[in-house]
Amino acid sequence: MQYIESKFDFAEALDTLFGHVLLLAIMWIWYRNVFFRCFAKLSLTESRVLLFCTVLLGALLGHVIDNYILKKKPHIFFNLLFGFGLYAVMTYISIKPQFIIITISVSVIIAFAYSLWTIRKRTHNNEDTIISTVRHVRKAIAGSKQIVSIGVSVIIAGIGIPIIFGGYLIKPTVQAAKTIDSEEWTVSNKVEELSLFFDEDRWQKASLTTKLDACQILANICRVEWGINNELNVFASNAPEFTFGYYNDHEHTILINIDYLLTAPGPEICDTVVHEAYHALEYRMVDAYLAAPDDMKGLEIYQDAAIYMQEFENYQDGDDDYYLYSNQLCEKHARVWAEYMTYEIKCAVNDYYEGT
């Protein structure tokens, strides 16, 4: 059916263009705030340009298929979604390879089977005219396009739901320690699991989930050893470029930058986890300080906690001045303890394998 009027309507065309641009802007903001990751080693600007070109290419390809092959009004939303989905596949394939590969494979197989069934249906009906053949081919293309669009939507949903509702991309299979009384979570009991941090070959070959499991075990050990009275849940997700990880005391979570987890050596990740776990201890020290009677708050044991409290209230994150960030007492102490515990764990690992 011909949907374009013979007489060009400038007002209608302008209204359509405005609607498309508005939809693109909404989807761009949504994707940028929830999903966006830089591609490989490209800069932020270069990655944004690549995203725009990918979305534009997907929209143009979808427009050509809809307008000139299928002869129907283009589905601008799905055409734009395809471009965003293609960029998501390019940037998340290293993070969720099995999920993405399986989803794409299933979509392609179903689309191929549907196309084959649709085209063969013409033969079974003995419709040998060119017109009927073209109609069935168009139907196969349209159905395949919809199936692929559903596959792309599944990929985006599979990536986005954990981020939107959980605040993470990857979570470990190891559970956070529930109490501080467990004898399970000690360096001596978990030395084999902790050895992953210091075996470069194993670390580089390990999956993200395996790496994160080691991080969760380490966080559990820190909690039990230091007597922290809240869980320490470790996740991995997108984070600003120079942020290796951070601790969120409201949710009792340690978040590791997914790019850092992918590329950094094991000892550095070990250091980061201990560093962030120590921030949890600092928050509990502040709680103890606030709960102490006023005439006891001047005791030396509370002096660090009093400084931590002031620093947390006016925290310097290093975006404007790295010196102010690194010179905070809470950061100094976290660095010292992270370095010390990483060294102790490395020694324990070496002693274990030398004795076996």
Describe, in plain words, how this protein is organized in 3D:
The longest helix has 37 residues. The protein contains 13 helices and 3 strands. A hairpin with a 4-residue loop joins β2 and β3. The protein has 356 residues and is mostly helical. α3 crosses α5 and α10 packs across α13. Strands 1-3-2 form a 3-stranded mixed beta sheet. The protein folds into 2 domains: 157 residues, no CATH class; 164 residues, no CATH class. It is elongated and about 95 Å long.
Summarize the structure.
The chain is built from 13 helices and 3 strands. With 356 residues, the chain is mainly α. The chain folds into 2 domains: 10-166, no CATH class; 191-354, no CATH class.
Q: Which segments are poorly predicted (pLDDT under 50) over 5 or more consecutive residues?
A: 1-6
- Compute the number of strand runs: 3
Fraction of residues in helices?
A: 55-70%
Number of domain units? 2
Oligomer: single chain
SSE topology string:
HHHHHHHHEEEHHHHH
> N- to C-terminal separation?
78 Å
Any idea what the shape is?
elongated
Report the sheet with the most strands, covering strand number, pairing sense and barrel closure: 3 strands, mixed
Structural class by secondary-structure content: mainly alpha
Give the strand order, joined by hyphens, for the main sheet: 1-3-2
Q: On the 0-100 scale, what is the average pLDDT?
A: 87
- Summed up, the helix count is 13
Q: Compute the gyration radius: what is it? A: 27 Å
Strand content: under 5%
